[in-house]
Amino acid sequence: MFVLIAGQLCHAATLGGGARAVGMGGAYTAVADDGAAAYWNPAGITQVKFGLMPTVGVQGKISEIQEVIFNQEFTDLDGYLRVNYGAGLTLRSFGLNVFGEFNGHVAQISGQPVLVLDHVMRSNLTLAKEFTGLLAVGVNAKYVSVKTDTIDALNEVASLGKGSGFAVDLGAMAKVGKLVRVGAVLKDYPLTKIKLDNDQVYELPTRVAFGGAVKVPLLGTLVALDLEKPFKGEETDFLYRFGVEQPIFGFVFLRAGGYKEEENLNFTAGLGLKLGPVVVDTAAALNKENPVYQAALGLKF
Q: Is the dihedral of CA 90, 183, 56, 116 positive or negative?
């Protein structure tokens, strides 16, 4: 049974999917032009002729991840572990993608420590259309499945609840001249309640995001800024993300950025390589408490 745990935890990040986006601090609402575009702004897929980009990420302290995987010990876990993954096909007006995440933390149940694993998976059908070359709109129709399991010190698994429902993302993107883009997206708006089989209701983290991106002439530097507002939960103030990308020789891309998590400002860095249609991206968020690591490999035309 532990093999299942290791498989789940080796792939997570509050920043979201796509290593390029993570390297830019998650400031991607007005960029969204690769295989992970549907995750950030469904209108962005109009910039992708053909995109295929599997991506995986992990968030948490490396020492604790190793302790869980190699020593099968989770009782010393301080904080949480997160795993995200994504894969699918993106075309200019159509996309099929799956994005999922595992969240793991230790809790006390009946006086015993157990590892609680929440798995949320979103299966997306994306449709988008561009008007006059200046404005694009898009929609993600989502089937959302939720499952929570517990694993005790003997590696015995028990289910706390599972359920499913439907949700939608609505996105728009506009070009202002040749060098400026702006975007907006409503994410995870529920169309149905996700009622678990333990009679609890899972609430999707609905939020709205606004973004802008500017490409600096001659240098080719891309600068982006996002503002995001959650609709529910303890944190309902605007969150901000910012990022920059600098191409070198047309095939190497250096990235840096930052994002606000609770009251802390965290910084990110990333590296990308593009050799013809082949894209390789890596990124890390330099958060001392819960660092983020993300990688993606794909094709883009």
A: negative
Nearest to 205 by CA among 182, 181, 189, 224: 189
Tokens of 90: 């993106």
Q: Give the number of other CB atoms < 10 A from CB of residue 268.
A: 27
Say how many C-beta atoms besides its own lie within 10 A of residue 123's C-beta. 17
User: Which residues have a Cβ under 8 Å from the Cβ of 36 and sit 6 or more positions away?
Assistant: 17, 18, 20, 21, 53, 55, 86, 296
- Token duo for residue 140: 């993600």
Predicted confidence (pLDDT) per residue in 34-91, tens digit: 999 999 999 999 999 999 989 999 887 776 666 665 556 666 666 678 889 999 999 9
Neighbours of 5 (CB within 10 A): 21
Q: What is the pLDDT of residues 206-256, one digit of tens each?
A: 999 999 999 999 999 999 999 999 886 545 678 899 999 999 999 999 999
For 297, left (φ over 0), alpha (ψ -120 to 50), or beta? beta
User: Could you give the CA distance from residue 233 to residue 286 in angstroms, rounded to a whole number?
Assistant: 25
Residue spans of alpha helices (H) in 161-250: none
Burial of 102 (0-12, 13-18, 19+ CB in 10 A): buried
Contact between residue 188 and residue 167 where contact means Cβ atoms under 8 Å apart: yes
Domains and CATH numbers, the chain: 2-300 (2.40.160.60)
